[in-house]
Q: What sequence folds into this?
């Protein structure tokens, strides 16, 4: 029965630690801002995963709550610092951030961009299906975002006269 529950398990410490880490996360997010857990760049995602790992190791191993909270605070301060520096120094932004790239321009699949992004046509088609695209005539653009997500911009119906605003594609590269 010890594999299900052992009386030596630190159950109460884990519950209290969960509460304390929750309070730390709420406080740090209020201080640093909601962008703390946004997924705008690849490193944002990596930091979010790292914070989850820290929380896990703090609650399930011998790492103290204070040590875990300090590690989380350190990562959140780093993300805040880098996002501030990126706004002020465009060369740093270009160095750190990936720029979105167009994968489809209307009904045209941009094979060179797919190759550059290491995305297969079958993966692109799967994303079109996820977006409920029934016909290539519905597609206005498909963009590989800086986060790694794929955005499908499409008309409600193939014969619709909806027009994609050029502002929506601002900052999106047409070529690798």
A:
């Amino acid at each position: 029965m010890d594999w299900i529950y052992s009386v030596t398990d630190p159950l109460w410490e884990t519950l209290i630690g969960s509460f304390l880490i929750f309070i730390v996360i709420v406080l740090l997010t209020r201080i640093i801002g909601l962008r703390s857990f946004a997924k705008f760049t690849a490193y944002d995602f990596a930091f979010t995963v790292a914070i989850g790992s820290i929380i896990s190791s703090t609650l399930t191993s011998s790492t103290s709550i204070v040590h875990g909270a300090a590690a989380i605070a350190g990562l959140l301060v780093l993300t805040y610092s880098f996002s501030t520096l990126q706004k002020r120094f465009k060369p740093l932004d270009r160095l750190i951030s990936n720029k979105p790239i167009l994968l489809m321009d209307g009904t045209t699949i941009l094979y060179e961009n797919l190759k550059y992004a290491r995305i297969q046509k079958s993966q692109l088609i799967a994303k079109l299906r996820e977006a409920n695209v029934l016909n290539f005539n519905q597609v206005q653009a498909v963009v590989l975002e800086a986060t790694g997500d794929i955005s499908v911009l499409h008309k409600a119906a193939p014969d619709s006269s909806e027009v994609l605003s050029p502002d929506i594609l601002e900052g999106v590269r047409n070529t690798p």
Q: What stands out?
A: The beta strands are 101-105, 108-109, 139-144, 150-154. The two ends are 58 Å apart (CA to CA). The chain has two domains: 11-95, 98-169.
